[in-house]
Amino acid sequence: MTPTKTILRELRRAHEESQGAALVRPASIPGFAADPDRFQKAVNELLKDRLIEGRKDEDGRMAVALNAHRLADVSRVLRPAWAHPALWAAALMGAIGAGFMM
Known about the structure:
- Helix content is 53%, strand content 10%.
- With 102 residues, it is mainly alpha-helical.
- A two-stranded antiparallel ribbon has the order 1-2.
- The radius of gyration is 18 Å and the shape is elongated.
C-alpha cells in the first residue's frame, strides 16, 4: 500500500473512532518509522492538496487530521480499484465490443 493510502486510512480510522477531528502524529502512523522520507513527502503532498490539515498537538508537536470539508475526496482516494468508474466503463466497452464480434 502506498504511503498516501496508509496515512489516509489511519487518519480515517482515528476520525471514526473519535467521532470528529482526531489529531495523529505522523510518526505514529504504521510504516512511518520504516521509511520516514517517503511518508513525510506523502504528508506534505496531502497537506498541499488540503486532504489533511496540520496543527500542533498539546505537546507542541506537529499532528495531522482529516480535513472535514474534504471527506468525500478522501473516500474517493481510498476506494478499491474495482470501484473506479473508469474501470467499469472500460469493462462495459469491452463487453459491448465482444458482443459485436460474435
